[in-house]
Write a structure and sequence with these properties.
By secondary structure, the protein is α/β, with parallel strands linked by helices. The protein has helices spanning 11-28, 35-43, 59-68, 116-128, 149-160, 172-186, 189-194, 212-224, 244-265, 294-307, 330-338, 361-374, 385-388, 390-396, 406-415, 421-429, 435-448, 456-472; strands at 30-32, 47-49, 54-56, 73-75, 84-86, 93-96, 102-104, 111-112, 132-134, 165-168, 198-201, 209-210, 228-232, 235-236, 271-275, 278-279, 312-316, 346-350, 352-353, 358-359. The model has no long low-confidence stretch (mean pLDDT 96).
């Protein structure tokens, strides 16, 4: 099968990044703010400086971890029809954005803080849109205790979508509580291990550091068989070298360190190689998904994941403007879109605003429409003798037309993409003119879409478990 893929590194450059990443981990090491994780690594061959909390990972330990990491696995949905098998066979699976701290109100358009009710709407809308492959809790629940917000977000998401959920965690207790909730729905811990219906993003803190709560939570998830996504967010010039090559090697090293921790905690546990690394915006200090260098970084890291034969999540999808609509430049749109040519299996971003600070229900619909029109660029294409059509060329001859030949009638709908004119009309505006129509679509889907509910007794048990968890905080 032929497929459009942006290739950034040649084989020698891949080799160099791999070798340099191993050198970083073995000679510089990573800072891990957790005595229990340091002890786990030390007991399995790492060299640990307990005073500085730095662990150096020998090359053989990292290579052994890569060998143990599953080369394929499934992000299961509560409904099996929504299972996401990785690596992706054709198109990447796109998720929503994650944990925005504000949203634009559906009625007024004003920015405001987000609640569980808002998250429920995002989850239900995501469930209704075929273009959304899995659900990252779009907004933060600010109406619950701070240390329990991830638990509430997972529980709210479970009740409002049957798609796979990729959440977040703040510490080991939080992780264990999430595993309990997942097990309650799956039918027990063993069933959750067989069909993990949620996964978790555990970000290293660039450069080369792991925060105590997140990394201890990662160990708990790994032990439970819940897939871990090690999303490096190395920012060129801020948390990684300003050079593109330096950012790539920093993000790769952080992924290898995270993979080693997962496999040390539970050999064979599913792990997703991940990155949303970009240059820093030198005028604002923010992550810059629209930087021209972002597709280069995404492509290189997808190549490294492919080298390790690991499923990956890199790049970003979505308009990512300041407010709903398509208000950014062609260059910025093209830059974001090009990250999808990296060869990634998954990606996040639908419905996000301002580099994930905000979320919008209307924007999720707009981003879904854009994806519908873009993804045919990534489809698999057959290149064989029949498709090369030599015999047809002989029959048609020189200077004649293929339009009436049976070969054209047989294949034109399979080979050529015919975009939805209504969706294309939105793209032509480069404005917010489509927002009113997107809003109407949101309201219709929230009113009419049916999500298979959880059993009432399961909801009651889960609510009681969360109440007890909050008392322990």
């Amino acid at each position: 099968m032929a497929k459009s893929v942006l290739k950034f590194l040649n084989r020698e450059e891949e080799d160099l990044i791999h070798a340099q990443s191993l050198k970083i981990l073995e000679e510089l090491g990573v800072l891990i703010h957790s005595k229990s994780v340091l002890r786990l690594l030390k007991d399995n061959g790492a060299i640990v400086d307990e005073n500085k909390m730095i662990t150096k990972l020998p090359e053989n330990m990292v290579i052994d971890a890569l060998k143990k990491t599953p080369k394929e696995f499934c992000l299961y949905g509560r409904d099996p029809k929504n299972d996401v098998m990785l690596p992706a066979k054709e198109f990447p699976y796109i998720s929503t954005n994650g944990l925005s701290v504000y949203m634009t109100d559906l009625e007024t358009g004003d920015k405001r803080k987000t609640t569980r009710r808002d998250l429920a709407m995002f989850a239900k809308l995501a469930d209704s849109l075929d273009e959304v492959g899995f659900f990252w809790p779009q907004v933060t629940a600010t109406d619950v205790p701070d240390m329990a917000h991830n638990v509430h977000e997972l529980w709210t998401s479970f009740q409002n979508t049957t798609k796979h959920i990729q959440g977040d965690s703040v510490n080991a207790d939080d992780a264990r509580m999430q595993v309990k909730l997942g097990s309650l729905i799956a039918g027990g811990e063993d069933e959750l291990r067989k069909r993990p219906i949620f996964s978790v993003t555990c970000c290293p803190i660039a450069p080369l550091m792991f925060e105590k709560g997140a990394i201890e939570g990662q160990v708990e998830f790994a032990k439970a068989g819940v897939p871990v996504s090690s999303m490096s967010m190395s920012l060129s010039g801020l948390s990684s070298p300003v050079t593109v090559a330096g950012t790539i090697v920093n993000a790769n090293a952080e992924n290898l360190a995270s993979i080693t921790i997962t496999q040390t905690a539970n050999p064979g546990a599913p792990h997703l190689y991940a990155s949303e690394s970009t240059p820093i915006n030198m005028t604002t200090g923010m992550i810059n998904y629209k930087a021209n260098e972002s597709p280069m970084i995404a492509s290189a890291l997808a190549q490294m994941a492919l080298r390790y034969k690991m499923p990956c999540l890199v790049g970003q999808w979505g308009v990512d403007g300041d407010k709903p609509g398509i208000l950014i430049s062609f260059n910025e749109l093209a830059t974001i879109a090009m990250t999808m040519l990296s060869g990634t299996d998954c990606c996040s971003g639908m419905g996000g605003l301002e580099s994930a600070k905000g979320g919008s229900l209307e924007q999720m619909v707009i981003d879904s429409y854009l994806w519908d029109n873009f993804k045919p660029i990534l489809r698999n294409m057959v290149v064989d003798r029949d498709m090369m059509a030599f015999d047809v060329m002989r029959e048609v001859g020189q200077g004649n037309s293929y339009l009436k030949h049976p070969h054209t009638a047989k294949y034109f709908r399979k080979e050529l993409f015919f975009p939805d004119k209504k969706k294309m009309a939105w793209e032509k505006t480069q404005s917010s003119d489509m927002v009113a129509e997107a809003k109407a679509i949101v309201k219709s889907k929230l009113k009419e879409h049916y999500v298979e509910p959880l059993d009432g007794n399961v909801i009651k048990q889960g609510d009681e478990m969360i109440k007890e968890f909050e008392k322990s905080l």
